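CORE FACILITY INTAKE
Project code: CF-77B
Contact: R.S. (postdoc)
Sample description: multi-component assembly, two entities in total
Requested service: structural model of the whole complex
Turnaround: standard
Below are the sequence entries exactly as provided by the requester. Do not edit them.
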Amino acid sequence: MTHTLTLDGVHTHIGRYHILHGVDLDAPSGRTTMLLGRNGAGKTTTLRTIMGLWRASRGTIRLGERRLDGERSSEIARGGVAYVPETMAIFSDLSVRENLVLAAREGAMDEARLGWIFGFFPALQKFWLSRAGGLSGGQKQMLSIARALIEPRALLLIDEPTKGLAPAIVDGLIACLKDVKQKGATILMVEQNFRVAREVGDYVAVMDNGRIVYAGEMAALAEDRALQGRLLGLSLDSHQ
Amino acid sequence: MTDIGAALPKPRVDVWPALTPLLVAAIAAPFIGSTSTFVTLTLASLAMGAMLFVMASGLTLAFGMMDVLNFGHGAFIAVGAYAATVVYRYAAPLVGGSLTLDLLVFVAALVFAALVCGALGFVYEKLLVAPVYGRHLEQILITIGGAIVIEQLLLALFGTEPIDLSPPLAFRGSLSFGEIGVEKYRLVALALGLALFVAQLLVLSRTRIGLLIRAGVENREMVEALGYRIDRLFVGVFMAASALAGIGGVLWGVYQNQARAGMGGELLVLVFIVIIIGGLGSVTGCLIGATLVSLIANYAGFLAPKLALVSNILLMVVVLLWRPRGLYPLGAR
């Protein structure tokens, strides 16, 4: 079961800094929406605000009919939202298996789903009982994404999953995200790598100074170089 | 994906910190000279270390996970000892009857102390600690204030004189092995400390709660983002830490033959030294730290009594110069 994510006039303050200045955003049900923008535009803050890790000081956040703003992160997560932070935030002192055991809140892990994850990320099976802190950067990213996928979720919030990864690993991530999308999950993803954005994204929203300055179909932005230049200051084709 | 074949670096088994108590004992042995004295001192140190471990292990988890500087931890040690005196008062007719009855009453005292301190820990966390999460200076002030209130309540309830808390008859006296004499109660304390160490390791490695605690020590925010109420986990850990302090208080009180309102405060510096040496949040580090502190204190007390006054501070300085985050530091938050 998936739902459309809707942000309506969301403001976020972090300490005395006003970061989000009224974000209006729709991430349609069962589709992948890419959130683009320069560094400091407010993309990560938007994801963290949806996840309840920062409090929205104004505005509403809805997933389907349910209001998320004002809920605790744990309640939002239990309502079917998974978050893959930019830092990956795997538990390095725990094994790969233990990281996934904690992510599978409903009890025992579904063997079939685990097999599906291993299909994309065989390294996790190979290092199943190894300490997660010893994994490479790419393997940690796989684990971080696997943690979000170990149970079906209505909404996936993914922050720059390909940052710093080798191209071959990025290809695997793209295949995985496409399959997740086909299973019907709603995805909101921050991404700097335009090749990934173009291959995975259905819709795109561009942020600047804590606001959405453009929203539309990914294909339309990818084909319109003038629009790319105006919104992002460079051709997305060179942004790879 | 090409990263499949990337060899995982072999996990580094860091045995050196675990060997430090052996190193200390090996260095001290020639200076002590007599084998029987050395073994007696070492066994006494191990028993003292086990008691310190019980008192400190809860604090290291609470400190490592919740980032709370609880300077009131010592008060729970005293409450535990007083709780044991209550059990002994009501069970007086049963004590001294047989080994079984003595054991039962002792276990009842430990359980009662754990329950009282766990419940008190719940109230203490809700009233004093929860409002000051993330604010260290306020934590120090308010938990010191909490400890003073608890100590004064103990004095008001039980009087200003220390209350007798002698070991049960079955645990009195010594066992002799040739020239080596070991107090029976020290063996009991050592066995109990080791049992609690194994129990904590099993809980932390084999249960979901244990995994959550270990994960929470490393990244509280992500635990919450996975759908777990970190605040409830904090309360649970705090209650367990308080209960362990209470059990440690019973062990220490019986070892000292008395319960006093100020006993916890006197031990608090030692307890903090143990968890800093061990590495915040590490149960294994806590056991090694407690053993080291006890060995150094006993050896120094025997060889150079004046040095014993500063021996633990010197130990902490040496350990932190070698391992600035303690012997077995956990992943940084």
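Facility notes:
- The interface with chain A takes residues 1-4, 6, 8-9, 11, 208, 211-212, 214-215, 217-219, 221-230, 330-331 of chain B (CB under 8 Å).
- The beta strands of chain B are 163-164, 174-177, 180-183, 258-259.
Invoice: internal transfer
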